[in-house]
Specification:
Helices cover about 45% and strands about 20% of the residues. It is an alpha+beta fold and about 290 residues long. Bound molecules: zinc ion. The site of zinc ion has 8 residues, from loops.
Length: about 290
């Protein structure tokens, strides 16, 4: 299934399925050694109140619709609330299946399989051994890739329209395709310019900075406007011995508690640091 992505259990190395679409707030856990099981259960319990409200709302709308349909002798009108009901049932179904999976895992996990000293992944080992300056590249994957691709396609279509409409719609006309072009350019620049400034700083950290393996202390979903993103808190020890903490947006959405992630920092000021997963940039050799 395309909405499932496997991550590696940081304690025993088994593959852990991670649901990415409907159940993003569910924390993945390892059914073999029990990694993250308690946190997954706590996160699920947090959704209980919201779930009760949804169930109440759905029941209310359903009852009202049924009453109205019976009064009006128009039973076909029930099909619309029925569809609504089915959609609203998705979180409930997700909750029940996650709870069952956690209960099953609780009785079958073997905690002895968990190791506290987790092996470093080969790609991370390579990263640690790379000579400076490292070769930094922009990774056009995920959301960034989709945004860039869509903008290019839309702009291309609009520019192709210009010669066909030019003669009967001068620039000040309402029909001029130049107006949407300017609008899209404006929107894209508002979204892209701050990211470019952020990535400019990351670029020099990734190229010349020191690299450390940071331990992920916490992961949660943070609200940003109408969407949410994965926020990670991590901690690493700089070469100077200083213990540094930071909180960043995990663009990979595949980082969770107790995992070890590469972080690049300025050796003169380790408070200037960025996790690799918090950037659209990647190191060329470790793509
Ligand atoms: Zn495990």
């Amino acid at each position: 299934m395309i909405f499932v992505n496997d991550i590696t259990c940081p304690l025993c190395g088994s593959s852990v399925p991670q649901r990415r679409f409907f159940a993003r707030s569910n924390k993945p856990f390892c059914a073999r050694c029990g990694w993250n099981l308690d946190r997954a259960e706590a996160a699920l319990n947090d959704t209980k109140t919201m779930l009760k409200l949804i169930t109440l709302a759905v029941a209310g709308v359903g009852l009202f619709a049924a009453f109205a349909a019976v009064r009006a002798h128009e039973l076909w009108t029930l099909s619309l609330p029925a569809i609504f009901l089915l959609i609203a049932m998705i979180p409930l179904w997700n909750y029940i299946s996650a709870r069952r999976a956690i209960a099953v895992a609780k009785s079958t996990v073997i905690p002895d399989l968990a190791r506290t000293n987790t092996p470093v992944l080969p790609s991370v080992q390579l990263l640690l051994s790379l000579p400076r300056p490292r070769r930094v590249r922009v990774a056009l994957t995920g959301t960034l890739g989709i945004i860039v691709l869509l903008s290019v396609v839309i702009l291309l279509c609009l520019f192709l329209m210009v010669p066909f409409t030019w003669h009967d719609s001068p620039i000040d006309s309402k029909n001029s395709p130049l107006i949407p072009i300017l609008f899209i350019t404006f929107v894209v620049s508002v979204m892209v310019v701050p990211a470019i400034f952020r990535e400019k700083r990351n670029w020099s950290l990734f190229r010349d900075g020191d690299v450390a393996l940071a331990r992920v202390l916490a992961q949660s979903r943070a609200q940003q406007g109408r969407t949410t993103y994965s926020k990670i808190d991590f901690e690493f020890r700089a070469n100077s011995g200083q213990l540094v903490r930071n909180s960043q947006k995990d663009l990979s959405e595949m980082v969770f508690e107790e995992m070890t992630i590469p972080v690049f920092y300025d050796p003169l000021d380790p408070s200037k640091n960025t996790a690799l997963c918090a950037s659209y940039l990647k190191i060329a050799e470790t793509f």
